[in-house]
Design the sequence.
């Protein structure tokens, strides 16, 4: 009797800011339409993602940077704007889209750099004169601090939307569309048909 063999999984490294409802929807479609090979996600820092793609630990990666000029191929899957998360009673709730100059009047919960690149650099560039605030490296800690009234946070819109609770409201940041692209990365030296099909699914919805 011949033993059953399963195809090797697609090893996908995901770096900061890419875990979003849109990625979840993509994985739902992937599992329904092409369950084999299975996709295995590895949450890693941006620098670790880069090294792992080059040394063969990962087949592909989702990132908010394209590593321009590197030996990696980058394909844009989707683009997103920034959003502001705020305590539910914040005066900023009156805006349909929060002007940056209004957001700059409130303490900003910053992203730690380099752990949260490129989001940290983009947000810091927008709010160079912001009031001082604490720095975090996770959306979970940011949500807790916002809910406790420590300040506001700015990040990727779809990811910030997950913070929407009775204590937190989320509004788009005015003038920021589109601010960030999610890329599918892979080494220039390889071309996996399974990754091509994954990219096609992402672009289809």
Sequence:
């Amino acid at each position: 009797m011949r033993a059953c063999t399963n195809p090797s999984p697609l090893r996908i490294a995901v770096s900061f800011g890419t875990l979003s409802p849109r990625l979840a929807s993509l994985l739902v479609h992937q599992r329904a339409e092409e369950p084999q090979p299975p996709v295995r996600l590895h949450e890693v820092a941006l620098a670790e993602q880069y090294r792992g793609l080059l040394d063969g630990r990962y087949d592909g990666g989702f990132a908010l940077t394209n590593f321009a000029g590197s030996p990696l191929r980058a394909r844009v899957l989707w683009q997103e704007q920034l959003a502001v998360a705020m305590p539910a009673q914040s005066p900023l709730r009156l805006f349909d889209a929060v002007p940056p100059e209004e957001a700059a009047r409130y303490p900003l919960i910053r992203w730690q750099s380099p752990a949260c690149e490129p989001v940290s650099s983009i947000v810091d560039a927008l709010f160079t004169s912001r009031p001082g605030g604490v720095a975090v490296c996770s959306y979970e800690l940011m949500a807790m601090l916002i809910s406790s009234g420590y300040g506001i946070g700015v990040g990727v819109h779809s990811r910030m939307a997950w913070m929407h609770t009775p204590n937190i409201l989320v509004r788009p940041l005015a003038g920021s569309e589109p601010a960030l692209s999610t890329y599918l990365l892979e080494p220039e030296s390889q071309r996996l048909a399974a990754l091509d099909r994954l990219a096609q699914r992402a672009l289809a919805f």
